[in-house]
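Suppose you are handed only these lines of text.
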Amino acid sequence: MYDVKTHLHEVLDSLPQGVRLVAISKYHPNAYIQAAYEEGQRIFGESHEQELRQKHATLPQDIQWHFIGHLQTNKVKYIAPYVTMIEAVDSLKLLREIDKQAQKCGRVIDVLLELHIAEEETKYGLTPAACRQLLEEGEWRSLQHVRICGLMMMASYVDDTAQIRGEFRIAKQLFDEVKARHFADADYFCECSWGMSHDYPIAVEEGSTMVRIGTSIFGPRVY
Ligand SMILES: *Cc1c(COP(=O)(O)O)cnc(C)c1O
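From them, the structure of the protein bound to pyridoxal-5'-phosphate can be written out as follows.
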């Protein structure tokens, strides 16, 4: 088995205080998650509803599951009863559906708005303009069962660290802007979820509060 314990501690030791680790366990077996759990890791991220369902049913119940993938509205109902955070909300439609399903469960679900800043065409997410517009229009204020806790983004998958850094900076500036404009009094609006295995040291320098790391902890994924 891959040495999850050693790699987890290497990652944890490299994170400054105040930056939380979401261990991205997609495509990895329960034994790997259990190994990290036994070292004290509690926050795990998954990107497929069915895989998450199986893992949630069979692993310790105090794991905090973050859904990090693109979420179809028809899948929200399956994760609403137990998910801790939905990280990649990129439309009002999805936000409304999360609110509806959370209400049915008698819960409030924490979410992040996913930004699209990277150059890659295929990535999901709100452009900065669309993010501003969604918040400006204000319907989200009436959704009592979702709580917007911050922003999430993925930088371009490139070697150019200046480009990556620049994208994180755009995200942080937007975070500061919307925080001041819409969430100045909301302590819970505090999360900047950026940084993956290949770029998290830069992300942390650029204000990340939550890194999403898979490969550096669990090794390469077997699809
Ligand atoms: C898979 C994934 C990660 C983790 O990627 P690694 O390169 O394995 O660290 C982070 N964020 C999202 C949204 C992902 O889908």
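What can we learn from it? Residues 24, 26, 47, 68-69, 154, 196-198, 212-215 surround pyridoxal-5'-phosphate (CB under 6 Å). The chain has a mean pLDDT of 97.
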